Amino acid sequence: MVDWDMEAPGLHRYFQTQFTQRFGSAANRALDEYPGLIDLFQELEQATGQAHEDQEPQSEEDADALLRVTDLSRFILETDIPALSLLKAGRFDDQYSTRVNTFQWETLYCHSPWLLRAFADYLAEQYRYVLIDSRTGLTDSSGICTMLLPEKLVVVFTPNRQALPECWT
Q1: What is the pTM of this model?
Q2: What pLDDT is stored for residue 150 in this prediction?
Q3: What is the pLDDT of residues 34-63, one digit of tens each?
Q4: CA 136 to CA 24: how far, in whole Å?
Q5: Which of 30, 90, 126, 155 could crosslink 36 through cysteines, CB 3.0-4.6 Å?
Q6: Which DSSP category does 157 fall into?
Q7: Phi and psi, residue 132, nearest 5°
């Protein structure tokens, strides 16, 4: 599972009782301090170097190589449920919202257009299924989750007035 709903993260809370093997009774605090998706992509962005206008975009081979040398397991938590892991939204400290709100997804994509595809391929190699909790609406991150990452897209929502088109209500 990947919690890509960084503006309203909460997937880790649904499974907070499923981390006792790793964290014991201190699971809530340990979960908050554990790095996640935004921390990973900040690290990947730093590893690609700051994009300059005169710099060539990163190649597909370079993006793949970067992911191969990055220890992604530092960001992925195994749950107590066999074969179920979680990449949470990020480390929930006092800088979390700043990291999320200032991250330049478009700049990263322009500098390293193959990085997100390489990330999706890595996840597909490691896991039989990858479920992504995405932000709703038209945002950079929801576009990544609906257009760049999936092989199949499944829309799940709660049928309430806000979720249904006006003509259905």
Answers
A1: 0.81
A2: 62
A3: 999 999 999 999 888 754 455 778 888 999
A4: 33
A5: 90
A6: -
A7: -115, 120
